[in-house]
Amino acid sequence: MAESIPLQTKAAVSPAKGALRVVLLYAGFSGLWILLSDRAVEALFRDPAIMTRVSILKGWVFVAVTAGLLFLMVKRLVEGVASREAKLQTLMNAIPDLVWLKNSEGVYLGCNRAFESFFGAPEAQILGRTDYDFVPKELADFFRQKDLEAIASGGARENEEWITIAETGKKILLETLKVPMRDPDGALVGVLGIGRDVTENRRLLAEQVRLEDQLHQAQKMELVGRFAGGVAHDYNNMLGVILANADLAMYHMPLEQPERKRLEEIVRAARHSADLTRQLLAFARQQPVDPRLANLNEEVASLIGVLGRLVGAEIHLEWTPAPTLWKVRVDATQFGQVLTNLVVNARDASPDGGRIQLGTTNCTLTEADCADLPDLRPGDHVCLSVQDAGRGIRPELLSRIFEPFFTTKPLGGGTGLGLALVHGVVRQNHGAIRVDSTVGEGTCFQIYLPRA
Q: Which of 319, 360, 322 is nearest to 446 (CA)?
């Protein structure tokens, strides 16, 4: 642990030694002047009256000379002190960090220009006052507690605190170092504080962690996607053989033959498996894409009837299109898969019925809006939202919902490919997806596609 900082080093000249040096110099000069001047007067003048006048004149000369020497010495001393103080003040003001000095009672003894901006007052108005004169009592109590901890520890103490700069109103995170200050005799003078703004550093660190997580997620998705694509291709080839032979067998089999129903079941199961294969290929981005200019209002409207039958009579499906919607470039078939998956998930999250809201809107995203959506660039976008009032998703599961084969549904209730497909398709169409969910209140999916 760092020791408390003395105000002077041992090599520095103490005030007592400096004063003694001046006194000895003055006494030596005075004695020499009196001795030599008296001898000179006695040797040059014999008349007592003249000697008296000369002695008086000699005294005035001595006063003038000593006054002149004293003036030069004091001037040199004052200029030296002023120069050192000016250099120290310039050095402190050049430091971008907040620097201040308090006595043991918490009264300010000095500060730099950066600290002045914190209180919104010049140093002259800060000196002699305490934190309680500038900040709320709770914050002042916190500052005082940290001062006392530094004094009690006898060494440096670090802490972090959120403060608001009075001049700008900006809230920043301050990393503060406080060290006890002592004079050459070891007596406590006060507490030196240095505060550094680490708000941007912490933001960049959090951004780095977030980007690393996204990189790991992307690598994992890419690996699983390649595996799923390879499996899907082989599986699709086998399904092709099964469907071809089943169709041929049905073609040569009379309609009234009982075994025909078994072949129909085989064909139905094979076609259902083919749908699953298409999902795998779409997730692996190995399914051909046919993007075209489209109006999402028209695409959603064409699916409303099908979606209404999917959700059932217990759930009310609301559709709120934007009056004039920008066009986007998207694969219509893939878009239908995305919307169907989201609506089915919203239905499954609302087992007691309720309402699912579909809506579109035009939006212009800024840099700040794209901070948590790295796949997007600032500019014009069309947003499609799917919102339910169901069970919601727990926060610890929210980051995993787009992982392939991960599902929150009970065993047998889902393949875990639906949202992975949604995520893959949205990114394949140069868009991004945002999810907001609160347990017990519902979930909202927002899909952003760039304006064509």
A: 360
What is the C-alpha to C-alpha distance for residues 191 and 178, in angstroms, rounded to an integer?
6
Secondary structure (DSSP) of 174-232: EEEEEEEEE-TT--EEEEEEEEEE-HHHHHHHHHHHHHHHHHHHHHHHHHHHHHHHHHH
Q: Where are the domains of the chain?
A: 10-84, 95-197, 289-452
Q: What is the amino acid identity at position 85?
A: E
Q: Residue 254 is encoded by which pair of tokens?
A: 């009379």
**CATH number of the domain located at residue range(s) 289-452 in this protein:** 3.30.565.10
Spatial CB neighbours of 36, under 8 Å, sequence gap ≥ 6: none
Was domain 95-197 assigned CATH 1.20.1260.10? Answer: no
Lowest mean pLDDT segment, chosen from 54-58, 306-310, 386-390: 54-58
Residue 412 has pLDDT above 60, yes or no: no
Nearest to 126 by CA among 110, 147, 144: 110
Amino acid 89 reads: Q
Q: Which two tokens stand for residue 430?
A: 């140069």
- Residue of higher predicted confidence among 79 and 245: 245
Is the pTM higher than 0.85? The answer reads no
H/E segment holding residue 78? helix 48-94
Residue 8, pLDDT above cutoff 70 = no
